Amino acid sequence: MNNQIYVSKEYMADPLTIMFDKEMVEFNRIHTEGEYESTIMSINSIGQLSPIEINSDTGLCENGRHRVRACISLGIQVKCIKINGKLKREKKLEIYNIEIMSGRELNTAQKAIQAHKYAKLTKEPLEVSAKRYKSTLRQVSDANTIAGLGRNDILDAIS
Questions:
Q1: What is the CA 159 to chain-centroid distance, rounded?
Q2: Does an H or E element contain 55, and which?
Q3: What is the mean pLDDT of residues 47-51?
Protein backbone atom coordinates (compact mmCIF):
# COMPACT_ATOMS: atom_id res chain seq x y z
CA MET A 1 0.00 0.00 0.00
CA ASN A 2 1.18 3.51 -0.77
CA ASN A 3 1.97 5.23 2.55
CA GLN A 4 2.37 8.72 1.10
CA ILE A 5 0.07 10.97 3.12
CA TYR A 6 -0.62 13.88 0.76
CA VAL A 7 -0.91 13.40 -2.98
CA SER A 8 -1.29 17.00 -4.13
CA LYS A 9 0.00 20.44 -3.43
CA GLU A 10 -2.25 22.89 -1.62
CA TYR A 11 -4.87 24.51 -3.83
CA MET A 12 -7.80 26.90 -3.44
CA ALA A 13 -11.46 25.98 -4.00
CA ASP A 14 -14.87 27.56 -3.70
CA PRO A 15 -16.10 26.45 -0.25
CA LEU A 16 -19.65 26.16 -1.59
CA THR A 17 -18.53 23.28 -3.82
CA ILE A 18 -17.07 21.19 -0.99
CA MET A 19 -18.90 17.95 -0.26
CA PHE A 20 -18.26 16.09 3.01
CA ASP A 21 -17.64 12.51 4.05
CA LYS A 22 -20.28 12.50 6.77
CA GLU A 23 -18.73 9.71 8.84
CA MET A 24 -15.27 11.26 8.87
CA VAL A 25 -16.26 14.87 9.59
CA GLU A 26 -18.75 13.87 12.27
CA PHE A 27 -16.00 12.07 14.20
CA ASN A 28 -15.29 15.42 15.85
CA ARG A 29 -17.99 17.43 17.54
CA ILE A 30 -19.56 20.55 16.06
CA HIS A 31 -17.91 23.74 17.31
CA THR A 32 -19.79 25.96 19.69
CA GLU A 33 -20.75 29.40 18.41
CA GLY A 34 -17.79 30.86 20.32
CA GLU A 35 -15.36 28.39 18.77
CA TYR A 36 -16.79 29.13 15.34
CA GLU A 37 -16.37 32.89 15.89
CA SER A 38 -12.79 32.26 16.98
CA THR A 39 -12.10 30.31 13.78
CA ILE A 40 -13.53 33.14 11.68
CA MET A 41 -11.44 35.71 13.57
CA SER A 42 -8.29 33.67 13.09
CA ILE A 43 -8.79 33.09 9.35
CA ASN A 44 -9.77 36.72 8.85
CA SER A 45 -6.69 37.92 10.75
CA ILE A 46 -3.90 35.60 9.54
CA GLY A 47 -5.47 33.45 6.85
CA GLN A 48 -6.25 29.76 6.78
CA LEU A 49 -3.02 28.18 7.96
CA SER A 50 -3.94 24.52 7.58
CA PRO A 51 -5.75 23.22 4.52
CA ILE A 52 -8.81 21.02 4.66
CA GLU A 53 -8.18 17.41 3.64
CA ILE A 54 -9.92 16.04 0.57
CA ASN A 55 -9.88 12.28 -0.05
CA SER A 56 -8.05 11.71 -3.34
CA ASP A 57 -10.29 8.75 -4.24
CA THR A 58 -13.74 10.06 -3.30
CA GLY A 59 -13.24 13.82 -3.66
CA LEU A 60 -15.00 14.29 -0.31
CA CYS A 61 -13.74 16.50 2.50
CA GLU A 62 -12.79 14.37 5.49
CA ASN A 63 -11.46 17.08 7.80
CA GLY A 64 -12.21 20.79 7.85
CA ARG A 65 -15.93 21.49 8.03
CA HIS A 66 -15.41 24.39 10.47
CA ARG A 67 -12.80 26.03 8.24
CA VAL A 68 -15.12 25.60 5.23
CA ARG A 69 -17.99 27.21 7.14
CA ALA A 70 -15.72 30.08 8.20
CA CYS A 71 -14.55 30.65 4.62
CA ILE A 72 -18.15 30.69 3.43
CA SER A 73 -18.96 33.32 6.07
CA LEU A 74 -15.95 35.38 5.03
CA GLY A 75 -16.72 35.00 1.32
CA ILE A 76 -13.27 33.62 0.54
CA GLN A 77 -11.88 30.49 -1.05
CA VAL A 78 -10.84 27.58 1.13
CA LYS A 79 -7.32 26.10 1.11
CA CYS A 80 -7.38 22.36 0.32
CA ILE A 81 -4.99 19.45 -0.02
CA LYS A 82 -5.65 15.92 -1.25
CA ILE A 83 -4.94 13.14 1.21
CA ASN A 84 -4.15 9.66 -0.03
CA GLY A 85 -7.48 7.85 -0.27
CA LYS A 86 -5.71 4.51 0.18
CA LEU A 87 -4.64 5.30 3.76
CA LYS A 88 -6.46 3.38 6.46
CA ARG A 89 -9.22 5.28 8.24
CA GLU A 90 -7.38 4.98 11.58
CA LYS A 91 -4.27 6.59 10.10
CA LYS A 92 -6.29 9.48 8.67
CA LEU A 93 -8.11 10.06 11.97
CA GLU A 94 -4.74 10.13 13.73
CA ILE A 95 -3.51 12.75 11.25
CA TYR A 96 -6.67 14.82 11.60
CA ASN A 97 -6.62 14.73 15.41
CA ILE A 98 -2.91 15.04 16.15
CA GLU A 99 -3.39 18.11 18.35
CA ILE A 100 -5.95 16.37 20.54
CA MET A 101 -4.10 13.08 20.64
CA SER A 102 -0.83 14.75 21.59
CA GLY A 103 -2.45 16.54 24.50
CA ARG A 104 -2.18 20.01 22.99
CA GLU A 105 -5.80 20.84 23.71
CA LEU A 106 -5.98 23.36 26.52
CA ASN A 107 -8.35 23.21 29.48
CA THR A 108 -10.53 26.23 30.27
CA ALA A 109 -8.06 27.75 32.75
CA GLN A 110 -5.19 27.39 30.29
CA LYS A 111 -7.26 29.00 27.53
CA ALA A 112 -8.07 31.96 29.80
CA ILE A 113 -4.40 32.40 30.71
CA GLN A 114 -3.36 32.26 27.06
CA ALA A 115 -6.06 34.82 26.20
CA HIS A 116 -4.83 37.09 29.01
CA LYS A 117 -1.23 36.81 27.79
CA TYR A 118 -2.32 37.45 24.20
CA ALA A 119 -4.29 40.56 25.21
CA LYS A 120 -1.36 41.85 27.23
CA LEU A 121 1.11 41.35 24.37
CA THR A 122 -1.11 42.66 21.58
CA LYS A 123 -3.13 45.29 23.50
CA GLU A 124 -6.26 43.56 22.21
CA PRO A 125 -9.38 43.99 24.40
CA LEU A 126 -9.92 41.14 26.87
CA GLU A 127 -13.31 40.25 25.40
CA VAL A 128 -11.80 39.83 21.93
CA SER A 129 -8.93 37.72 23.28
CA ALA A 130 -11.46 35.63 25.21
CA LYS A 131 -13.33 34.86 21.98
CA ARG A 132 -10.09 34.16 20.15
CA TYR A 133 -9.09 31.57 22.76
CA LYS A 134 -12.60 30.16 23.23
CA SER A 135 -12.74 31.40 26.79
CA THR A 136 -15.11 33.68 28.66
CA LEU A 137 -14.49 37.29 29.55
CA ARG A 138 -14.91 36.37 33.23
CA GLN A 139 -12.17 33.73 33.08
CA VAL A 140 -9.78 36.01 31.21
CA SER A 141 -10.54 38.84 33.64
CA ASP A 142 -9.74 36.50 36.54
CA ALA A 143 -6.38 35.63 34.95
CA ASN A 144 -5.76 39.33 34.39
CA THR A 145 -6.55 40.08 38.06
CA ILE A 146 -4.19 37.34 39.28
CA ALA A 147 -1.43 38.76 37.08
CA GLY A 148 -2.24 42.27 38.25
CA LEU A 149 -1.71 41.18 41.85
CA GLY A 150 1.80 40.12 40.88
CA ARG A 151 0.98 36.42 41.19
CA ASN A 152 2.26 35.17 37.86
CA ASP A 153 3.51 32.16 39.83
CA ILE A 154 -0.12 31.06 40.18
CA LEU A 155 -0.74 31.45 36.44
CA ASP A 156 2.47 29.53 35.69
CA ALA A 157 1.40 26.71 37.99
CA ILE A 158 -2.00 26.45 36.30
CA SER A 159 -0.44 26.58 32.83
A1: 20
A2: strand 52-55
A3: 96
Burial environment of residue 97 by CB neighbours within 10 A (0 to 12, 13 to 18, 19 or more): middle
DSSP string, 77-107: -EEEEEE-TTS-HHHHHHHHTHHHHTT----
pTM of the complete model beyond 0.85: no
**What b-and-e string marks burial along 40-52, b requiring 16 or more CB atoms within 10 Å of the CB?**
beebeeeebeebb
Q: Name which residue leads in pLDDT, 29 or 150.
A: 150
Query: Which amino acid is present at 27?
Result: F
Question: Looking at residues 73-99, what average pLDDT do you find?
Answer: 92
| Per-residue confidence (pLDDT) for residue 103, from 0 to 100 | 52
Alpha carbon distance 122, 94 (integer Å): 34
Positive/negative CA dihedral, 7, 10, 13, 18? positive
Number of Cβ within 10 Å of residue 2's Cβ equals 9
15: nearest Cα among 46, 61, 58: 61
